[in-house]
Amino acid sequence: MASKSVCFVLVTVLLAYYIYMPLPDNVEEKFKVMLLDATFRTLGHAGTLAELLGIKHYMDVMMLLTKLEHTEPISDEHVTVTDTSFNNVPVRLYVPKRQSEALRRAVIYIHGGGWCLGSAAMMPYDLLSRQTAQQLNALVVSINYRLAPIFHFPAQYDDVYTVVKFFLQHSILEKYSVDPSRIAVSGDSAGGNLATAVTLELLHDPEVKVKLKIQALIYPVLQTLDLNTPSYRENGNMPILSRTLMVRFWSEYFTTDKKLFDAMFTNRHMTSQEAHLFKFVNWSTLLPDSLKKHHIYHKPQYGDSSFVKKYPAILDTRVSPLLTEDDKLKGLPLTYVITCMYDVLRDDGFMYVSRLRQAGVQVIHHHYDSTFHGILLLNTLPFDLEIAHHITAKYLEWLGNNL
Ligand SMILES: *[C@@H]1O[C@H](CO)[C@@H](O)[C@H](O)[C@H]1NC(C)=O
């Protein structure tokens, strides 16, 4: 009996120790956040173990969550939902049922997941797309692009660009009663990366006549060059997206070869040959003082081995949109950016906002100082957070007023 109680206490203490993580004071609903993070961490540990034992790729295990949260395309009283494909790339379409004489608006949505995970059919994305379609009376095209590690860059990008280009044809817009002057592209995290890249590419594509009205970038990933910005340094162990996982996503975008991961992890994946590019991600000039705080800007640290030669995509502006020259940023559409304080990617977003404003692009930047990466996904039970509903509502309100 006594030994049972001892066991019980021990297990409880260990469990509490496992679940507990120090969180910044202003993070709300701390217990839920800790449980959520512990769930994520457990999945990550399982992935690491499976990989160590040679059973499965790390990302195959991480994909479990995407699979668990899979939803069928089920229409409701407001929106007709169907899975189809645009030019052979699978998309999930949300068509509002409300009849109207006027043409509709449209949002092309690109889900996140580090180019390795996620799907338009995941519960949180499916819900967001329904809400977008219903509240804006807009058509939503949510893209299911190919994922790493099976497919590396440029598969993800190509799929997204294919869909966008297909959709922006007059005949297709007409078919869906979409107003060609009221189309947005939007995406979160790696989807924000793809949305940024596609919007840039469209500016200079002579084959596309229809122009996007808005790009909405939700805590986007924007550069491969410096994986030690103040936000990477401060938020390496914050919920959902650790620095290790982000570096893993980055390296898997190009290759499963662990050497690239190791070099990126120590931020020595560039050589002095790339020195001239660091001005584009110089956080000492591009971040506000409030974020620079006590951080000291050092000269980049260079490695010996040229990963850029092996994987030139690392410096492709379709991968690292922050490496785009100033004059190529001019003419971008109205841009909406969300950043979160406790996110390794926070400074990518802030730096892009600075660069865009310097180039004369109109930017609306909503920075949330009490939350972390991936927050928009936390809109469904059992892990839904108040702040997720709040940020989603603000985002949809802004889109509704501006698209
Ligand atoms: C970054 O900006 C600082 C000025 O704040 C400058 O001293 C430094 O040389 C810059 N570094 C690069 C690589 O552009």
Structure notes:
This protein has about 400 residues and is of the alpha/beta class. It has one domain (about 25-403): 3-Layer(aba) Sandwich (Rossmann fold). About 40% of the residues lie in helices and about 15% in strands. It has an eight-stranded mixed sheet, with helices on both faces. α4 runs parallel beside α16. The longest helix has 23 residues, at about 30-50. The model has no long low-confidence stretch (mean pLDDT about 95). 2-acetamido-2-deoxy-beta-D-glucopyranose binds near residues 278, 279, 284 and 285. 2-acetamido-2-deoxy-beta-D-glucopyranose binds near residues 278 and 279.
What is the element layout, followed by pairings?
Blueprint: H1 2-19, H2 30-52, H3 58-68, E1 79-86, E2 89-96, E3 104-110, H4 123-136, E4 138-143, H5 155-167, H6 170-175, E5 178-188, H7 190-203, E6 214-218, H8 230-234, H9 243-254, H10 258-265, H11 283-286, H12 289-292, H13 307-310, H14 326-329, E7 334-342, H15 346-358, E8 363-372, H16 386-402
Parallel strand pairs: 3-4, 3-5, 5-6, 6-7, 7-8
Antiparallel strand pairs: 1-2, 2-4
